[in-house]
Amino acid sequence: MTEHHELARPPKVAGRILDAGLDLLDRQILDPEHVPVTTVDDLEITTPNDLAHLDPDHPPVIEALLTGPVLLTRIFGGRLPDSRFIRIPWRVVSDCGIVVSVGVPADSLDASWTERWMSEHVIGRIPGGQHDPE
Q1: Residue 71 counted as domain residue
Q2: Percent residues over pLDDT 90 in the chain
Q3: Is residue 8 part of a domain?
Q4: Cβ proximity of 45 and 60 under 8 Å
Q5: What angle do CA 91, 88, 58 make, to 5 degrees?
Q6: Interval 26-44: pLDDT, tens
Q7: How confident is the model at residue 101 (pLDDT cuts 50, 70, 90)?
Q8: C-alpha closest to that of 58 among 72, 45, 76
Q9: What are the phi and psi torsion angles at 35 (to 5°)?
Q10: Which domain holds residue 68?
């Protein structure tokens, strides 16, 4: 016969506890004017004092949102080298909801160049792509 153990209570931490898979990964990032920046492909996470194990009193901390050319890794597997990711510092994140909002303009972030390029060179060339629908 198996014993039933109660689950440990979650740790009390300052701030908000997020489920990375549900609340952050693959979410669109928007600037204060609701301009698309990019999507969240991965996270840079550290543990206080570089602890090798998870300590309930010192949970992991998000340092940055990572974005990059991950399409091929999603198709064929593997992971991009860290040098290929573009980092968006966590300190510029202003809200996490249906989208992740940042408190700085999109054009101030290196990650927004792909959105701008796609808008100018692809979407802008599609008939009707230059204006909002009426």
Answers
A1: yes
A2: 29
A3: no
A4: yes
A5: 50
A6: 999 999 999 888 999 999 9
A7: very high
A8: 45
A9: -85, 130
A10: 20-125
